[in-house]
Design goal:
Strand 12, helix 11 and strand 13 form a beta-alpha-beta unit. The chain has three domains: about 10-265, Rossmann fold, CATH 3.40.50; about 365-445, Luciferase, Domain 3 (Luciferase, domain 3, Roll), CATH 2.30.38; about 445-544, 2-Layer Sandwich (GMP Synthetase, Chain A, domain 3), CATH 3.30.300. It is α/β, with parallel strands linked by helices.
Length: about 550
């Protein structure tokens, strides 16, 4: 009998399938699967992969949109102790070749709509033994690819196996300052972290650091099932982004909940809100204002027409990765009383969180620092609360093994302080007198103007306090006098108007004068990645 106390995501989800086999596990459009069906489908895919040499720590690329296929392929990889690789479906040929080659992927699942791209890159990826096509378009099956549906129909379910908690779990970063890097964790450490996150959100969960406590999950999940309290999480952001998969996928599945996805590329607020109603979603995962603002606009628009959206099932809205402004949070809460969970972190580790509600208003960019986190000043010493000194945030809670095939970068990012290993991804912050932290931004994006360090995210947030501003990015432009000057790239709310001088002056009330933009460039739309992250490369191109 397989040891069910081993902390591995495949083990957790197989146990869930045994506990509540007939409850819903995944929903995508009209495709709904119970836990029994979900696990069986994944076991059939695992059997196919196993026959083609995929084994422990073999890498499996997921060049996929949101959908049940993404989740099934991931589960199948976990079953084999393989390592799913998140592939950004917006990547072009050169970027795809890089990530699939760098990760040493041996199998790749891909959407049929990208068949031409796959035919173009396959010759440059000799390590890939197996290509599996999701036949979701009119494109014919690539002659060297296997049909996803045929694999499921013709394969038998792979028996469950004993697994290792030290099995690698990996996610590639977005590559905002260079090529993406594979951040490596172990399943054991990540499972512990996920249950810690569930506890922070108010869920009743056991302390799984004691493996004996895993058995407590069964009565908890059974009780949640009996009382109709199993989570139904709509993941609005891409599954290939850590926010979507970790805060949405892993947290939901580990307590027997159902993952809901919308099988459409791009953000469609109307479709999302209709999905909330039809699926009775209890939670939704987004990425900051890039998702929240369009959703808010749709809520406002529907309400103005006396046909408000029914989002009464939503209990919590979850975000991570970028700043989620207080004004938008407040406006969302005006539509519906729910919790807003805002997590500060990156692929390299979580550092703080904030929970807002109608009874507890949001404080923009201020987070309760995790107990395992510290802030180190430039002198290498701990920053004192209220000192006004900025510092690098480090966390010891969930520290990656390192970056895949990059020991030099690993040594710089994951290092010891006072005998404890911390992750320092490059985020700067201030510690307020009350112990909360104010996020400043990535040091890699820091602007040096006349010797003063200016963090774009802080300036962006101040600019967006102007009611005419929809979105903005701030970058540093070469300047003969100051070295760099602050330039804002701004998009305005529809039918709004404001000139450069008035916008700068309105911002003066919120930040120091030296941080104010010296110039404003107005654009129709501020570019962001599919996961909502800022596209500073694009903004630099516009500003320069």
């Amino acid at each position: 009998m397989v040891n069910s106390k081993v902390l591995h995501f495949a083990n957790i989800w197989e146990n869930v399938s045994d506990i509540i086999p007939d409850k819903t596990a995944v929903i995508s459009g009209n495709d709904t699967k119970t836990w029994k069906e979900y696990e069986n489908t994944s076991a059939r895919i695992a059997s196919f992969l196993n026959a083609r040499g995929i084994k422990e720590n073999s890498k499996v690329g997921l060049y996929l949109h949101n959908g049940n296929e993404y989740l099934e392929a991931q589960f199948a990889s976990f079953k084999l102790m393989g390592v799913p690789i998140n592939v950004n479906y917006r990547y072009q040929a050169k970027e795809l070749i890089y990530i699939l080659d760098n990760s040493d992927s041996e199998a790749v699942f891909f959407q049929g709509c990208y068949s031409d791209q796959v035919k173009l890159i396959a010759k440059d990826l000799p390590k890939v033994k197996t290509w599996i096509q999701i036949e979701d378009s009119k494109a014919e099956l690539v002659d060297f690819a296997h049909s996803y549906n045929e694999i499921i129909s013709k394969s038998s379910a792979m028996p469950r196996i004993e697994r290792n908690e030290n099995n690698t779990l990996m996610i590639y970063t977005g590559g905002t300052t260079g090529m993406p890097k594979g951040v490596m964790y172990t399943h054991g450490s990540f499972v512990v972290s996920i249950f810690g996150g569930l506890k922070a959100q108010g869920h009743k969960v056991p302390d799984v650091r004691d493996r004996e406590n895993i058995e407590q999950l069964r009565p908890i999940i059974l009780e949640m099932s009996k009382t109709n309290c199993l989570s139904r999480c709509l993941i609005a952001c891409p599954l290939m982004h850590g926010t979507g998969m970790f805060l949405g996928g892993f947290m939901t599945h580990n307590l027997g909940g159902a993952i809901i996805t919308v099988p459409k590329v791009g953000l469609d607020p109307l479709l999302l809100l209709n999905q909330v109603k039809s699926s009775k979603a209890t939670s939704m995962v987004i990425v900051g204002d890039a998702f929240a603002k369009p959703i808010l606009e749709e809520l406002d628009n529907a309400k103005s027409k006396n046909n408000p959206h029914d989002i009464s099932s939503l209990k919590i809205l979850i975000s991570s990765g970028v700043i989620w402004s207080a004004e938008v949070k407040t406006a969302l809460l005006a539509h519906h009383d729910m919790k807003l969970f805002d997590s500060m972190g990156s692929s390299e580790g979580g550092m703080g969180s904030s929970i807002s509600s109608r009874d507890k208003p949001a404080r923009t960019a201020k987070f309760k620092i995790n107990k395992d986190s510290i802030v180190l000043g430039d002198n290498g010493e701990l920053v004192r609360p209220g000192s006004g000194e900025r510092g690098l945030i480090g966390t010891s809670g969930l520290v990656p093994i390192g970056y895949y095939k990059d020991p030099e970068k690993s040594a710089l990012t994951f290092r010891d302080f006072q005998g404890i290993k911390y992750s320092f991804p490059g985020d700067y912050a201030l510690i307020e007198g009350d112990g909360s932290i104010t996020l400043l931004g990535r040091g890699s994006n820091c602007i040096n103007s006349a010797g003063e360090k200016i963090y774009p995210e802080e300036v962006e947030e101040a600019i967006k306090l102007n009611k005419s501003v929809y979105d903005c990015l701030v970058v540093g432009v070469k300047d003969d006098k100051f070295g760099q000057k602050v330039v804002a790239v701004v998009s305005l709310i529809k039918d709004s108007a404001i000139d450069e001088i008035d916008l700068i002056e309105s911002t003066r009330a919120h930040i120091s004068g030296y941080k104010l933009p010296k110039a404003v460039i107005f654009v129709n739309e501020v570019h962001r990645a599919p996961n909502g992250k800022a596209d500073y490369k694009w903004a630099n191109g516009v500003a320069n």
